[in-house]
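During the practical work, I selected for study one protein's amino acid sequence and its backbone structure tokens, as given directly below:
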Amino acid sequence: MSNAHQNRRTMLLTWEYGSVGGGLGRAMQWIADECRAAGMNLIVVSPFPGADVRIFRFLRFHGAHLVFSLLLPFALRSIVKREHITRILVPVCPGGVFLLRWPKGVSVHAIVDHLYVQQCRSVPGEWWKRVFIPFERHMLMRAAQVTCVSPDTRDAVMHFYGVPSDVFVPFVFSDAPSVPKEPGSCLCVSRLTARKGIPVLLRAWEKVHAAFPSARLCLIGDGRDKRLLDRLSPAVRASIDHRLHLPYAEVLALYDRSDIILCPSHLEGFSLFCGGGMSRGAAPIASDADGLTFFIEHGRNGLLVPTGDAEALAFTILSLLHDPMRTRMLGEQARASIRMRFSPERAREALLKTIIER
């Protein structure tokens, strides 16, 4: 890193950080750790533990990230002045921060997981989020630089807003020696929401249980669609091991033991769950949606199903449950493809080009 880049004081301004929230928090922590390891002069500003500067710690409710964005103007200027900040890295759009104004003399580098305009078009019942599109457009048009977490998101940013951007992988997937899988074990780690396809998954699982009663689904996550579990029959509910939260080390152990990972989302930016499960040798079944097709070549290292189609999802799950050899082959190919495409060296090289040296 050049002396000019080392002397520049950068702020990573984020709502989610570390183990708090979903994959975005872990991705932001990885970015911070790698930037510092490369010599970047960086501080993290967030409400959550692990940040160098913690602001608005009282925000602990659904939708609080929007309140966080509204309150930022009251704190940002003083932090920028006190810490001598010249550049702000900020995840924007869904799950991120709306930074509509920022102090003069500061450049903003926007990091995009996915877009509100994609959610409005792709996710059932989320048409109302179009109210956020003007703010999304304003942020992306004003940012000095935009970096996306996948080619799918980059293409959407250009298509809908005409803003050029580059791409980097926001995480390094951990590798581990292959361990025996538990036959008939399926895993889904996700927020329990419509965007993540949880209603579709549960409808599909009812059909899977009827045809293959010994199959087991481990479902990790919380969200408003948790209530759908209570509507299942007792027999189907008993086949699902639901846990609200697990430490990341225990999630990795579940990756190792699971035969199949299920990714039924209507939309992703960069699915850490899909990539993480593949890296540990689980066979992925995923929707043919943005942020998932990026990982999977259908029939080679996983299987894709039409987004929102519970019948197709159930049929595909059953096809692997009835064919352990194919499941094992897909899992091995999944592991190999992640190792080849998302090596630590490649991820760090992309981070250096797109964020650290800019």
